[in-house]
Amino acid sequence: MSAGRPVPTGLAVALVAAALVPAALAVAGSAFLWLALAVDVAVLLLCAFDFLSAPRASDVEVRRGVEPVLSSGTANPVRLELSLRGPRPVRGQVRDEVPPGVDVRGHQQPFALSPDAPHATVSYALTPPARGDLRLGDVHLRLLGPLGLCARQVRVPVAQTVKVYPDLTALTREALALAMASDAPAERTLRRSAEGREFESLREYRTGDDYRTVDWKASARRARTMVRVYQPERNQPVLLLLDCGRHMAGRVDGRRKLDHAVDAALRMAKVSLDAGDMVGVLAFASDVRVYLPPRKGHEHLRLLTEALYRAEAALEESDYGRAYDFAFARSSRRSLVVLFTDLVDPDASGTLLARTLALRPRHLPVVASLLDPDLQAAATAIPASEQDAYARQAAARLEEDYQRTALTLRDSGALVVRAPAKGFGAAAVNTYLHVKTRGLL
């Protein structure tokens, strides 16, 4: 801990300001000037005494309580636990050192410790804006002297680094919402004709059931009409490919496109693992950066999250061919291949198109990209100047290129997902559910 430095309080500043009154009256007589000097010297001496009498860093113990893994975009609780280590009461302020760009509330608060109440807890919340490593700095204490004129500013070395993952609580909430929706009678009726291809059980015929699901042998044995109930197949591979190239470095709704893609990929992974499928992930730019082969189980979701929380977009071209070759050199089993990328760049889209279509019919490819509202607005805006007209033309050309690429993908049997940032994760999950309930994989 540092020895500390003196910090005058508001009371000391007020006393010095009061000395300006006799100083202003010094024109009427030298006595007022001596009075002003006497007040200033007295305040200075009292501040020096107060600083020397103020508690030291060794009189207070500080511990920070924070989870080793935080969630981005949500408020995470942090506690500063202060304990009295000396016989004298301690008053002052505590401030936690938080990196810039982090939304924080209540990280600077007053506190008081005494022999009767030797412990105090200061709580606040911080909201990290993005994934990655977050370094929390030291804790700063401003310890007041007995006169309240000067404080001792000290630094307590408790710096630490915590991990910031995508909001895992959102994954749990979304999974719960999907489970509740799947239990609704209207939902069951909607999907009755296409619940999957894997046999689950037999039940008695109900009005509206498809006659093709009637099991005539079971009906004859039981003397009543029985139908087969099917469920979506399990143990199917789902491979999530994340483009970490320059196209994903742009921002939509204040966050990088890659951040939205990682959130959507983990939502799809959560739902897929809950459904009993195997999920793998591959992050790439000019080369492969992260690869986890398809596996099952809830522990695998933790590994996926751990692998992706540091993923960053690089200002380099993405090599789609190398990513596909790397992924399928290790497994040729039919898979749902979901590529999170950007289809706005026509040059990159040509390579992507050729390699993605080559997956058919062996695999089922899905290309998911963000809808940029600024680009869409620019493509339809009424230009007010010549520069606006050029901007509209460029935006309209990019939009036309996307529509052309998306149409080619759909005509060749691939699925295309495009949604705004707020609904991107839900759109990806809905595509997965559509594939499973229709038995497309």
Explain this structure.
The chain is α+β, with helices and mostly antiparallel strands and 441 residues long. Helix content is 38%, strand content 29%. The chain is built from 13 helices and 22 strands. The strands form 6 sheets. It has a 6-stranded mixed beta sheet, with helices on both faces. Strands 1-11-10-5-7 form a 5-stranded antiparallel beta sheet. It is elongated and about 115 Å long.
What distinguishing features does this structure have?
6-stranded mixed sheet; alpha+beta; 5-stranded antiparallel sheet; 38% helix
* CA radius of gyration: 32 Å
Strand content range:
25-35%
Kindly name the structural category: alpha+beta
Across the major sheet, the strand order is 19-18-15-20-21-22
Q: Give the overall pLDDT as a whole number.
A: 84
Please give a quick description of this structure.
The protein is α+β, with helices and mostly antiparallel strands and 441 residues long. It has 13 helices and 22 strands. The strands form six sheets. Strands 19-18-15-20-21-22 form a six-stranded mixed beta sheet, with helices on both faces. It has a five-stranded antiparallel beta sheet with strand order 1-11-10-5-7.
Question: Topology, please?
Answer:
Layout: E1 5-8, H1 10-18, H2 20-24, H3 30-53, E2 60-65, E3 69-71, E4 76-84, E5 90-96, E6 103-105, E7 108-113, E8 119-127, E9 132-136, E10 139-144, E11 150-156, E12 160-165, H4 168-182, H5 185-191, E13 198-204, H6 216-222, E14 226-231, E15 237-243, E16 251-252, E17 255-256, H7 257-274, E18 278-284, E19 288-295, H8 298-308, H9 320-328, E20 336-340, H10 346-357, E21 364-370, H11 373-380, H12 386-411, E22 415-419, H13 424-438
Parallel strand pairs: 3-12, 15-18, 15-20, 20-21, 21-22
Antiparallel strand pairs: 1-11, 2-4, 4-8, 5-7, 5-10, 6-8, 9-12, 10-11, 13-14, 16-17, 18-19
Helix pairs in contact: 4-7, 7-8, 7-13, 10-12, 11-12
